[in-house]
Design goal:
250 residues, alpha+beta, 3-stranded antiparallel sheet, 13 strands, elongated, disordered N terminus
Length: 250
């Protein structure tokens, strides 16, 4: 191969595979710049250049001067403004909690207030729970099961949920479990929040037949046919196998 010199503001030596050359007599006879020949540049691309004869070095040392009318291809570079945009996106992503949610919510009640309800309900409390919901459920603990009942003398599962929602949230729910299921928006188990409904299939092959109120940390309150109003955990084997879905009142 031959050595080629490229003049585009950068000078470098590079071996080239082949150059179509034209002899010096031909140049003198024609008086014109010889036809372009193509050769590989330092970036391995093909470039058009005019070939001239260097009499000092002979044919083995001929040099090619690149055609200034042929622009060297530019390599793609990451636009500076894109870097700034991505930095802003990453910054917002890492600070989303503080930017959009504000400071953490303070506990709703003091430990000395809710500790007694921990023992009564048989579940841990953090102080961030709704005090009205916890106190109302605690007042119903031990109420016997009674089909169709909605009082402290006896209540079924949907009757207990109906009264608690009326007293705590001021909402009138449908009276039956299936109607409550139809009126609520379905929620996956991992997305349950305090006050959501939890539905179970304790009998039959289709639909739901039992309902409770989610209290948080996997615990829910309900009126059991065998034990009355009580608090259980969704992870318990009986309820884990029969759990169907959560429901959020629209």
């Amino acid at each position: 191969g031959h050595e080629a010199e490229y003049i585009h503001g950068i000078k470098s030596k590079q071996r080239v595979f082949s150059i179509d050359m034209i002899s010096e007599p031909d140049m003198q006879n024609t008086g014109k710049i010889p036809a372009p020949c193509f050769q590989r540049g330092p970036d391995r691309g093909l470039y058009r250049s005019h070939c001239i004869h260097d009499g000092n070095t002979g044919t083995d040392g001929q040099r090619a001067i690149s055609d200034p009318t042929v622009k060297r291809p530019k390599q793609w570079q990451w636009p500076p403004q894109w870097t700034f945009i991505w930095m802003v996106i990453l910054l917002l992503g890492t600070t989303s909690c503080s930017v959009f949610r504000g400071a953490p919510e303070a506990p709703r009640w003091a430990p000395e207030e809710y500790r007694q309800y921990e023992r009564q309900l048989g579940m841990p409390l953090t102080g961030y729970e709704n005090p009205d919901l916890i106190k109302t459920v605690a007042a119903w603990i031990g109420t016997p099961y009674r089909f169709g009942g909605i009082t402290r003398q006896g209540a079924d599962c949907s009757g207990f949920v109906w009264v608690v929602y009326r007293d705590v949230y001021g909402k009138n729910l449908p009276r039956t479990t299936r109607a409550m299921d139809n009126e609520s928006r379905r929620i996956r188990r991992r997305n349950l929040s305090e006050g959501d409904l939890v539905f179970f299939r304790t009998k039959g092959l289709f639909g739901v037949s039992h309902v409770g109120i989610y209290l948080g940390s996997g615990y829910f309150a309900h009126s059991s046919a065998s034990r009355g109003v009580i608090v259980n955990h969704l992870g318990e084997n009986y309820y884990d196998r029969r759990f169907r879905r959560g429901g959020r009142i629209r």
